[in-house]
């Protein structure tokens, strides 16, 4: 395959800008850079062919180049139609040693503003490896589980021409996936079956993708082992929380530039993401109201000083609404009809089904208008306007640039160590879903202390013995909640 054609990005000439931001990000990603140094000689990922499906941002570029530095070959797609930073994608395609005329980087298929057809085509390209025995990867690095889903649905389709869950083609997305599988069946009736046979495992980034994996494990349909990276403490208690604390208001500000102070903001869901979002809005001076279905999280929100009530109670009073649940049908069209003029509505959960965009479009007489990409006004027949961010998709990546480097260094160090675990110790992980061993979780945190000037206290041996741990850790039992 000609390297010049084995990628698709928006504008290859953005590579130089991308490279400059990647260089700045490297300094802010001490975990990844330390891992590069530690494993430079051992090359633990030599022989790994990793297909990645994860937001193609500057931070992800540093992850990709870390995997390459550890010996892996990589192909990449974004895991959301709006989340790619085009300059990062260009820089990855060109590579540190290439030029736009002579690209030498990683095959990447991602641009900001893909259609659904393009999105699934990109995912397929990332999973399709030229010149390999099975035509596929031997590892997947996933965020939200779409690459893993395509392989699993492909295998089911090739087995009996059916894909449970997709056959109804009830959404546009289902229709697009079915069409894609129908096409690949014509091209190679064993494409996905062959490809799946060589996959050693997947490492999954986010809450929603992890849900899908446990579901497949319960149903007995999971085809290969998986490491749940999300539930590493250094991932979900940092990226989901502190990452969203940074990038939620970044997205709202860039999209609307509305003053958040003094406004009433509703955060639906008070899990890790909701906690970060609520703090972020409160930090700007908003009055924050939380909705929850879980009494424990509701009590936590109350103890943290937030009013907790139902959406119904506040639907006509609040100025900003953010969904963070990973659940569906949180804000329905009938809810949006009751909102104040120029209320802002956005989602930061992984998929776009938290806000009923389809129902909104079906309201008779409603008019959608684009203010700028990823910011739309919806005018109701009575003249009332609401502002919807990123068409209901995750707004921190659609309207801003996602989480900043330092927090992603934690998540991506977890990803890298998880890839090494699954790739180098296949016998230790029979098909199933695992979390990272705690000593690796603690290692990732440790790699980020120096950069912040943290001085850690060292346990004395008698203290270690007294609390029943080793001096060098792990320091907590697996059930500890942090
Ligand atoms: P979580 O499970 O910790 O929190 C979700 C919370 O929503 C739970 O407390 C749950 O009880 C609550 N909830 C569920 N249904 C609800 C309803 N109908 N009304 C009100 N609350 C409800 O999950 P986490 O880790 O906070 O992730 C949430 C979503 O955000 C997932 O889709 C995840 O993949 C995504 N995510 C997005 C990120 C981003 O950068 N945009 C970063 C990390 C995660």
Automatic annotation (TrEMBL):
<dbReference type="Pfam" id="PF05221">
    <property type="entry name" value="AdoHcyase"/>
</dbReference>
<feature type="domain" description="S-adenosyl-L-homocysteine hydrolase NAD binding">
    <location>
        <begin position="240"/>
        <end position="402"/>
    </location>
</feature>
<feature type="binding site">
    <location>
        <begin position="348"/>
        <end position="350"/>
    </location>
    <ligand>
        <name>NAD(+)</name>
    </ligand>
</feature>
<comment type="function">
    <text>May play a key role in the regulation of the intracellular concentration of adenosylhomocysteine.</text>
</comment>
<feature type="binding site">
    <location>
        <position position="205"/>
    </location>
    <ligand>
        <name>substrate</name>
    </ligand>
</feature>
<dbReference type="InterPro" id="IPR000043">
    <property type="entry name" value="Adenosylhomocysteinase-like"/>
</dbReference>
<dbReference type="InterPro" id="IPR020082">
    <property type="entry name" value="S-Ado-L-homoCys_hydrolase_CS"/>
</dbReference>
<dbReference type="Pfam" id="PF00670">
    <property type="entry name" value="AdoHcyase_NAD"/>
</dbReference>
<comment type="pathway">
    <text>Amino-acid biosynthesis; L-homocysteine biosynthesis; L-homocysteine from S-adenosyl-L-homocysteine: step 1/1.</text>
</comment>
<keyword id="KW-0554">One-carbon metabolism</keyword>
<feature type="binding site">
    <location>
        <position position="396"/>
    </location>
    <ligand>
        <name>NAD(+)</name>
    </ligand>
</feature>
<dbReference type="InterPro" id="IPR042172">
    <property type="entry name" value="Adenosylhomocyst_ase-like_sf"/>
</dbReference>
<protein>
    <recommendedName>
        <fullName>Adenosylhomocysteinase</fullName>
        <ecNumber>3.13.2.1</ecNumber>
    </recommendedName>
</protein>
<feature type="binding site">
    <location>
        <position position="240"/>
    </location>
    <ligand>
        <name>NAD(+)</name>
    </ligand>
</feature>
<keyword id="KW-0520">NAD</keyword>
<keyword id="KW-0963">Cytoplasm</keyword>
<comment type="similarity">
    <text>Belongs to the adenosylhomocysteinase family.</text>
</comment>
<feature type="binding site">
    <location>
        <begin position="269"/>
        <end position="274"/>
    </location>
    <ligand>
        <name>NAD(+)</name>
    </ligand>
</feature>
<feature type="binding site">
    <location>
        <position position="143"/>
    </location>
    <ligand>
        <name>substrate</name>
    </ligand>
</feature>
<feature type="binding site">
    <location>
        <position position="235"/>
    </location>
    <ligand>
        <name>substrate</name>
    </ligand>
</feature>
<feature type="binding site">
    <location>
        <position position="327"/>
    </location>
    <ligand>
        <name>NAD(+)</name>
    </ligand>
</feature>
<feature type="binding site">
    <location>
        <position position="292"/>
    </location>
    <ligand>
        <name>NAD(+)</name>
    </ligand>
</feature>
<feature type="binding site">
    <location>
        <position position="57"/>
    </location>
    <ligand>
        <name>substrate</name>
    </ligand>
</feature>
<feature type="binding site">
    <location>
        <position position="239"/>
    </location>
    <ligand>
        <name>substrate</name>
    </ligand>
</feature>
<feature type="binding site">
    <location>
        <begin position="206"/>
        <end position="208"/>
    </location>
    <ligand>
        <name>NAD(+)</name>
    </ligand>
</feature>
<dbReference type="InterPro" id="IPR015878">
    <property type="entry name" value="Ado_hCys_hydrolase_NAD-bd"/>
</dbReference>
<keyword id="KW-0378">Hydrolase</keyword>
<dbReference type="InterPro" id="IPR036291">
    <property type="entry name" value="NAD(P)-bd_dom_sf"/>
</dbReference>
């Amino acid at each position: 395959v000609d390297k010049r054609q084995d990628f698709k990005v928006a504008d290859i000439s953005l590579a130089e800008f991308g490279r400059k931001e990647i260089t700045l990000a490297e300094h802010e990603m001490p975990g990844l850079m330390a891992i590069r140094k530690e494993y430079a000689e051992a090359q633990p990922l030599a022989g790994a062919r990793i297909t990645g499906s994860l937001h193609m941002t500057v931070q992800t570029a540093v992850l990709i180049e870390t995997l390459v530095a550890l010996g892996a070959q990589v192909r990449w797609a974004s895991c959301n139609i709006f989340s790619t930073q085009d300059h990062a994608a260009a820089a990855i395609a060109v590579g540190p040693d290439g030029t736009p005329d002579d690209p030498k980087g990683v095959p990447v298929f991602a641009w900001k503003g893909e259609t659904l057809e393009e999105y699934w085509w990109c995912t397929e390209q990332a999973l399709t490896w030229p010149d390999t025995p099975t035509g596929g990867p031997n590892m997947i690095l996933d965020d939200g589980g779409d690459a893993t889903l395509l392989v699993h649905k492909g295998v089911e389709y090739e087995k009996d021409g059916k894909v449970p869950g997709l056959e109804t083609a009830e959404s546009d997305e289902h229709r697009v996936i079915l069409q894609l599988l129908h096409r690949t069946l014509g091209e190679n009736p064993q494409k996905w079956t062959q490809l799946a046979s060589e996959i050693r495992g997947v490492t999954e980034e986010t809450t929603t993708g992890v849900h899908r994996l446990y579901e497949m494990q319960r149903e007995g349909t999971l085809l290969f082992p998986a490491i749940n990276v999300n539930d590493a403490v250094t991932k979900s208690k940092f990226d989901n929380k502190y990452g969203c604390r940074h990038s939620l208001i970044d997205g709202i500000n860039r999209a609307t530039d509305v003053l958040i102070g003094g406004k009433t903001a509703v955060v639906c869901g008070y899990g890790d993401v909701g906690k970060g979002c609520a703090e972020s809005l409160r930090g700007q001076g908003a009055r924050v109201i939380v909705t929850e279905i879980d009494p424990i999280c509701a009590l936590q929100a109350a103890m943290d000083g937030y009013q907790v009530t139902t959406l119904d109670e506040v639907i006509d009073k609040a100025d900003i609404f953010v969904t963070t649940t990973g659940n569906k049908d949180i804000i329905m069209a009938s809810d949006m009809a009751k909102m104040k003029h120029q209320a802002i509505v956005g989602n930061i959960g992984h998929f776009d089904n938290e806000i009923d965009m389809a129902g909104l479009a079906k309201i008779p007489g409603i008019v959608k208008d684009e203010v700028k990409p990823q910011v739309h006004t919806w005018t109701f027949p009575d003249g009332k306007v609401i502002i919807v961010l990123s068409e209901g998709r995750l707004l921190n990546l659609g309207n801003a640039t996602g989480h900043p480097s330092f927090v992603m260094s934690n998540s991506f160090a977890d990803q890298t160590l998880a890839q090494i675990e699954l790739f180098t110790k296949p016998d230790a992980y029979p098909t199933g879903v695992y979390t990272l061993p705690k000593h690796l979780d603690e290692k990732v945190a440790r790699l980020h202390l120096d950069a912040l000037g943290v001085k850690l206290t060292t346990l004395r041996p008698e203290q270690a013995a007294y609390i029943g741990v080793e001096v060098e850790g792990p320091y907590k039992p697996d059930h500890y909640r942090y």
